[in-house]
Design a protein that fits this description.
- With 189 residues, this protein is α/β, with parallel strands linked by helices.
- The protein has a five-stranded parallel sheet, with helices on one face.
Length: 189
């Protein structure tokens, strides 16, 4: 019988002995399941901790930061602590600054410009900006945002930027475009 109280626990139970090869992606930043650190520690898997404030209905009403970069770094540090306290290994924690989660378009750009500050926390950083709304607004023609499936070139440019900021990985829709952009830029270096 699989556990129903925690979807991550259920997935890990299904994985059996391969749990250490899995990564749990906590996009809620502990908002939806306070037991997540204990589950991750119990199974010895890796975890992605995403900066977020609220759920999909409320997060865009929670964009009040004195300084978005300082706020995100401070909040990721606080969200990370229960994982460390539960016994999750430092190296098993991956941080996601939560581009598009509880941030205005301008705040996304400010945070992207300071990705290296998230890297200074010492964890691997996952960067996910692929096809997001702030890119549609940037590439808009007049008042009409660029459709999501036409934002891959801008996504590839941001993937290159993330690589230069020492991010561990990028989450993208069009893998080939981002891969090619990073390879071309690396050839110049």
């Amino acid at each position: 019988m699989l556990s129903s109280e925690n979807p991550a626990r259920a997935a890990l139970e299904l994985a059996g002995g391969r749990a250490a090869q899995l990564i749990i992606n906590d996009i809620s930043g502990l908002i939806t399941d306070a037991q997540m650190p204990q589950v991750v520690a119990e199974y010895g898997c890796e975890v992605i901790i995403t900066h977020n404030r609220g759920d999909s209905d409320t997060m865009q009403q929670r964009t009040d930061y004195d300084d978005v970069v300082v706020g995100v770094v401070d909040e990721l540090t606080k969200i990370r602590q229960p994982y460390l306290d539960a016994g999750v290994a430092f190296d098993d924690i991956i941080l996601d600054p939560g581009i598009g989660f509880a941030k205005t378009h301008q705040q996304n750009w400010e945070l992207i410009g300071s990705l290296d500050r998230v890297s200074l926390l010492g964890h691997r950083v996952l960067f996910g900006a692929s096809r997001k709304g702030f890119l549609g607004a940037l590439l808009a023609e007049g008042e009409t945002p660029r459709p999501a499936d036409q934002r891959d070139a801008a996504t590839a440019a941001l993937s290159f930027h993330a690589a230069r900021a020492r991010c561990w990985a990028v989450r993208v829709h069009n893998v080939q475009a981002s891969y090619d952009a990073v390879r071309a830029a690396a050839a110049i270096s």
